[in-house]
Amino acid sequence: MLSLNKIRNYIPGIILSVLIMLISQLLSRIIPVIGSATIAILSGILLGNIFFHSNIWSKGTGFCEKTLLEISVVLLGFSITIQSIITFGLSGIFFILTLIIGTITISMWLGRKLGFSKKSTVMMAVGNAICGSSAIASIAPIIDADNGEKGRIITLVNLLGTILMLGMPVLVVLLFKNNPLKQGAVIGGTIQSVGQVAGAGSILGIKILNIAMLFKIIRIMFLAFVVIFFSYFGTSNSTNEKKIVWQKIIPWYVIGFLLIGIINSYFPISKQIILNAHNFGTYLEITALAAIGLRLDISAFFKEGKKLALYGLGVGFSQIVLSFIFIKLFY
């Protein structure tokens, strides 16, 4: 049970994130070509690194980044149906599966070449292949990773995800101009965290956002298999005895997203409810994206060192190349 004092700690960051969301929505009407998602992310990064880097904001922005974003993902379930998922067919599953295998293989190989420990390479591989820091949090206790290693890799994966979040929308538009399916599939198949996928998808519109989130959900559902694999082969220790925390592997918002999608597929839901869910989800999502920007520490780019930066850029570049190859192969 949260005390009143603890609740007060959340208020400044929440208010700041909501204000940026509201201003972004207003500015997007003046310059619609940019969009509220892009404005919120970039404004958050700028303001967070210049003015609002005090700890007073961190509790509230952390809540917005995580909880509000998760709720917005659940509400996206009103925009999809089982029938729309089936249209992706086995091609979508194989596209994601080959990307996961390719990303893990290259991350492990490149990490060894650069001299990183096996535990660091496993966390880097799983974080980039599945869902960023959430995946790292799931795999770290299984392979007995220490907090120092875990913190460095989480920072690197988040920084890489931010670069891809801002860069991938431009790339997919240039390469797949009139193909929303390919645009959404590549964004959902490559970018690291759920929030970063939401940010990149929102830049290109609701249709591509929905497709990207579907492909992202497919990635997350593979996390259980990846964790089980590395629980046996992740290190030389007998880590298979470690307890797998299933709540971390199958997040509640993934279950909620799928349940609402199923309900939406087989039971009539009024258009007004769907519209209200969409609008409310959009407000939550833009608020979360503002918080993501506020929490991004640009100075971290320069603190991690050249070798770690090279590792991140190498993995990111490989993911982009693999996604373009596999999307042409399967679609």
Summarize the topology.
Layout: H1 4-30, H2 36-50, H3 58-75, H4 82-86, H5 89-113, H6 118-131, H7 133-139, H8 147-175, H9 180-190, H10 194-204, H11 206-221, H12 223-233, H13 246-249, H14 252-266, H15 271-295, H16 299-303, H17 306-330
Structural class: mainly alpha
Measured as a percent range, the helix fraction is: over 70%
If you compute it from the alpha carbons, what radius of gyration comes out, rounded to the nearest whole angstrom? 19 Å
Number of strands: 0
Q: Name the overall outline.
A: globular
Bin the strand percentage.
under 5%
- Uncertain residue ranges: 237-241
What is the number of helices? 17
Order of helices and strands: HHHHHHHHHHHHHHHHH
Main pleated-sheet profile = none
Overview of this protein structure:
It is a single chain. This protein has 331 residues and is mainly α. The chain is 79% helix and 0% strand. The chain contains 17 helices and no strands. The termini are far apart.
Features:
single chain; 331 residues; 17 helices; 79% helix
Quick summary:
This protein is mainly α and 331 residues long.
